[in-house]
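Hi, here's the filled form for the chain we discussed.

Project: internal
Contact: R.S.
Residues: 335
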Amino acid sequence: MNQPKTSRRSLLALACAMTTGAALLASPAAQAQDAAATFPSKPVRIVIPFPPGGPTDMVARAVGAKLQEKWGQPVVAENRPGGSTIIGVDHVVKSPADGYTLLLGSNSLALNRFLIAKVPYDIDRDIAPIILVAKISNALVVHPSVPAKDLGEFLAYAKANPSKLTYGSTGQGTATHLFAEMFSMMTGVKMTHVPYKGTGPAVVDLLGGQINLMFDSLSTVIQNEKAGKVRMIGLTAMDRSEAAPQFPTLHELGVKGYDATGWFGFATRKGVPQPIINKINADIDAIIRTPEMRKRLVGIGSNVVGGSPEVFNAHIQSEAKKWGEVIRALNITPQ
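And the returned structure, exactly as it came back:
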């Protein structure tokens, strides 16, 4: 039996509407895939929230140069220091959500939420992690005048002389301060904190014997340890450093679970299409695994990590949980 013409027209109209609707629904995903396929089609910026010359600056420029070769587009490193990295991160958060403005972030992505009262953004809401590039171990080192040649002797001396040992840091609430305080919490030793305005003055006083110990960057420690100016007790990471595999970690020496590292990775603002994030992730991951780039990263005391955006996001969340507990235990209030 033939259907009435009006009925057939209604069915055709419905079919057309469904097809058009499906096409519209698929459009954003299709557009994102198309954007990723042609990315980048113009210059890309890497924002470094630190002054020129540090390890993050070196990594940003080295990786940026390789991305420029790979992409055939300029990749410009741009230093925007200040405000405990807030100025640089805020600039990225306020940039267009197109993937053309990247951030080389560090521990502050996890720490600032606990230490700074008025942060103009929310990391979980406003930042999209791309890739965790590397972790940098610090080391617990003592001045040669401290009567301890290893961790066991150090802990015995510190417990027999509560609060006598002084340790330097780069300032109240900074990573080196928190590294030392977590060590104290996990071992039960009591030490006296001496905050400095930066690494340089603290190292000078350590070498001069004005303070007894410090959690210092491995790249600095290696030279001073070779010269006999400091004595190595142990590294702060869970794994030994590729830069100095002869040095054991505090974890393997008996402070089980102690893990305190510097780290840095690439991120961008939230809202950048996932296919573009995935492309940037894959390209950087391939670059940092090359022998040339691995050598450069190991040269500054780093262990290469890499992996997916999800791996980096999980790391930020884990670091925020761990250090948030330490900061609360110390009663450090946001400033």
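Let me know if anything looks off before we file it.
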